[in-house]
Amino acid sequence: MKLLKRLALVLVALLAIVAFGLIIWEPLSVSQAVPPSLRQYEARIVRDNFGVPHIFGKTDADVAYGVAYAHAEDDFATLQEVTAMTRGRMATLNGEAGAPIDYVAALLDVDGTVKRKYDDLPKDVRAVLDGYASGLNSYADEHSEEVMLSKLFPINGRDIASGFVLRSPFFFGLDGPIEALSNNQPLKREGGPSLSVPVESPTVHPLSEDKIVTPVGTDPDENGSNGYAIVPDRSSDGKTRLISNSHQPLRGNVAWYELVVHSEEGWDFAGANFPGSPFPFLGHNKFLGWTNTVNRPDLIDIYKLTLNEKKNAYRFDGEWLPLEKKRIWLKIKYGPFVIPYPKMAYRSVHGPVILNDSGGYALRYAGMDQLDMLTQYYRINKARNFEEWQAAMAGQGVPATNFIYADASGNIGMFYNAMFPDRAPGFDWRTILPGDTSKAVWQNSLPFTRVPALINPRSGYVMNSNNTPYVAAGPGDELNRSTFSPLMGIEDDETNRSRRSIQLLEAAIASGKKIGEADIRRIKYDTAYVQAGYAKDWLDKIAALDLKDDPQLVKAQKLLGNWDWNLDGKGAADALALMVLRPANKSHYQRDKLPDPRKILQETVDHLTQYFGKIDPPMLKVLRLRQGKVDLPIDGGNDTIRASTLWNVEDDGRLSVRHGDSFIMFIDWDKAGKVHSRSIQPFGSATTRPDSPHYTDQMQLFVDKKLKPVWFDPAELEKNKASEKRVGSASRTAK
């Protein structure tokens, strides 16, 4: 009996040791980031009366330091998530939900790309990245009680670069084939009509229990945005106009953060960035500006490998090449424990490889194994004219996204920017490609001169709302489709927003009057659907249903039949239309088959009846903008120009918007070439700081469709500043 007790005590002790080891194993196994070499930074952070930070510094690196510090003051939690993601520690921070992101980072060899390419970046770009990293380090040192994960800091410029490498390809849909191949689902290809490519036999990937979570933190199949630029001759007051209306998640690691920067080295810019970036991604300087919308050309190719019996080699150009493999450890938090979970990441000459029961599949995608997007963003921030801006764009670092451009000289343009693979003819690039020949493996991108672009068209405007680039300037100014190779995979899609935008712009032109501030605001905040395209087809299907066995559905069908095609919240059928149109839009955007219309109508009727007691409640009681204790009605839908794209269904049945209109900016240059801008955000500058006065202070303006001034001119800022502080430290910056 004593022996059994001793054994039991020994077993308990061993379990305690193992448990303690698992608790401390992860931080002990983490390699500390290389401390930066000593350098002094100093920045001045001036906040206006909406809490927007204006960062001043002697050098661009000083400003980048201040950008990071100011952002950490407002949202250190999200910045830590981004940092954990770039260092392969999301699963340690957030548990199982973060494991797929850590796996994808290893699969794409993010660390390898940075090791190979970082030292080739221009010295001034590296200085800005290191300055930004040092700003985060300083904030973490001074606020250690807020740090959520041991050894997360210090970081350096390489860590910042890693974030760009990891997130960039997911804006053009790389998660789609990764998830499909991992779970043996049909592949949906981008660019042009839908094509479903099945993988041969069913299999379950070891990570199939974990949904692949995109590192961009949103569903790329429902990304959106609107952008407009108008020449002075089309404006009633002779101004060049640029409207930036990005649709992003309202919270998280790709939620917009507004800022203004001023450096004595000539970096002056007002706009917004994502957590983890030193550069604004859109906005304006004194001379020019741009905005972005998501585009979806075919930038991803998939190859079927011919594997040997042991699956450790593949045939390529008549030879057997070893399949590269690397063991990775996903460090997953379960309660107080961090459990190491082993996985293998594979790679071929094509790119990352996913193995399943059907074999091996290699991925090759635009922008793979490069860091040039960092240089491009920095250079376009500092461009002083159209020629400099185009020269920076020609560097082709940003793999995909439309750029809508305007400047003080009255130039406008829409660039369907993408790093189009230079594909060889003779292959069906929209199917799974043979992996055994180098003839199917492209090496370069087409030059920037091949990018579809419309510059200073006769219509006097350019626009994009995630639609085909050919119609960016309206009827009569279309690009000639035949001049672009089908191998580029340029999309043919239209959205309701694109149809409606062109309809409204053309109506203004046809009326003979010029477009003024009030006109462009009405267009931007429009909530109507065009009675065409997928929306009409979908509602026609609902109208054709035989519903005589269900009086409630008949009533809903009749309400939708009399709907005024406007989600302004005034019509009796608006709530019904809002909810039944979303699945149709999702299927259209994903180029997928439509769901069962009766099922969708039934689910909508059941929801409205359960939570609101009737099928025709006012839409503004259903659709809400919520943050903390503030709860406001909001209009628009998931494919209206005023976008309320995605929502969470709350416990009270109301729909709380989480994605859609986010950072909005109206920019113009007057006849003298001076820039003015106004902006708005859904919540405020401090979205994760409930105690901040800027947690919700823009919400009422946002739902009222109003804008606030951007005090870009430092002299004007002085009249409207709320606070000022200097930050700096003897930080360390990577060589």
Q: Can you tell me the CATH architecture of the domain at 225-271 and 284-297 and 381-524? A: 4-Layer Sandwich
From the N-terminal CA to the C-terminal CA, the straight-line distance is 65 Å
- Helix percentage: 25-40%
What is the overall silhouette? globular
Estimated radius of gyration: 26 Å
How many beta-strand runs? 29
User: How many DSSP helices?
Assistant: 19
Largest sheet: 10 strands, mixed
User: Which CATH C-level class of the domain at 225-271 and 284-297 and 381-524 is it?
Assistant: Alpha Beta
* Named CATH topology of the domain at 225-271 and 284-297 and 381-524: Glutamine Phosphoribosylpyrophosphate, subunit 1, domain 1
User: Runs with pLDDT <50, length 5+?
Assistant: 7-22, 190-213, 731-735
